[in-house]
Specification:
By secondary structure, the chain is an alpha+beta fold. The protein has one domain. Helices cover 27% and strands 28% of the residues. The radius of gyration is 14 Å and the shape is globular. The two termini are 24 Å apart.
Length: 116
């Protein structure tokens, strides 16, 4: 199920040689796909990132639902039925939809333990 007001994210990126030096690119093996909420983005361009059709290689890491640090924001919602989806992000995403107050309490608990 695609989760509204979220984005799929990756925890790493690769580099390739471009015309002006090294450029960021998607890794050949992206690993697990994680989830972030709109509130995880702490900058003014949040709406632009959520509306973008481009991959965003962020300079400031964001905290995924599971607590991992993400650097690549994909231009699609997190889908917890994706076989590459992080299981913990999937569980948190379901909570995000079903009971936002419980999700937020868990999110804050994780933040207070420096997991974000």
């Amino acid at each position: 199920m695609k989760i509204r007001d979220t984005r799929a994210v990756l925890t790493s990126f690769d580099h390739k040689r471009g015309p002006f030096g090294l450029e960021r690119c998607l890794p050949e093996e992206p690993g697990k796909v994680h989830a972030i909420s709109r509130s995880a983005l702490r900058f003014a361009s949040t709406d632009a990132v959520f509306a973008s059709k481009d991959i965003n290689f962020d300079d400031v890491p964001v905290g995924a639902f599971c607590g991992r640090t993400a650097w690549v924001i994909l231009p699609r919602e997190f889908d917890n039925s994706d076989p590459d989806a992080c299981a913990d992000c999937g569980r948190m995403a379901k909570l995000y939809v079903d009971d936002y107050s419980k999700w937020f309490a868990e999110y804050e608990r994780r933040r207070s333990r420096n997991l974000y």
